[in-house]
Known about the structure:
Helix content: 25-40%
Oligomer: single chain
Distance between the termini: 46 Å
CATH superfamily: Flavodoxin domain
Shape: globular
Amino acid sequence: MNNQIEIFIKKLEEKKKVLFLTTSNRWDKSNEIPKSTSLAREIQEKLKGTTEVTILDIPKLKIFPCEGNVSGLKGNNCGDKGSLLKDDEKNPSGYHRCWASINNQDDELWKVSKELFESEAVIFFISVRWGQANGFYQKLIERLNWIENIHTTLGEENFISNMEAGCVIIGQNWNGENVMETQKQVYEFYGFQVPDELSLYWQFTQDVLDETQESYKEAPKAFSKEFDISISKLKESLSSSFKRLKRLFEF
């Protein structure tokens, strides 16, 4: 894995600006950072001085579910020109076309698309839950469906054809590699370039029946050792928690 992560970082060093989208979550008061999020932050640190990395934590954004406009009775109108988000601040590229953004004024998917279209590559950091990508990721990728739809069904320009995409998959005991390969295929369908160097997975054990408490307790230690991340970095410091509270109550 060390060689794999080195190749991953070296590939990102070729870029000027990349976007990391973290999709795993913990209870807000646990002061614990998901392993995949911790890895995203660690890689961001390693890329300082060569590549600008923006991290967006998807569970902290208000993103409404996909409305299913791909398969309505009138056909497929996902991403048609009527769904253009007419807001120069939220949609400076003019590419964001999603009905759920129009129908929900407080929807925050624009924060993702705005950064996405300013980046050369996007990496999705995904935890595996019940053998699949977690629910926050799934809601996100469904809401981005218009990116694919615009150049397939609607026959317009593929405006991400020069952008690269990949994923970092972190799981406990089941199906991690298959999740990675499936999502790489999704990115290809969307129209991204998908180099193998920008995707990797880590799974604590290949024993799908290992549901012991000992296994779950050992996993963070093994992850920490594998990626050279101290256990302390899997927790939010009290100082950072205090800063968040301070910002919350500032007027």
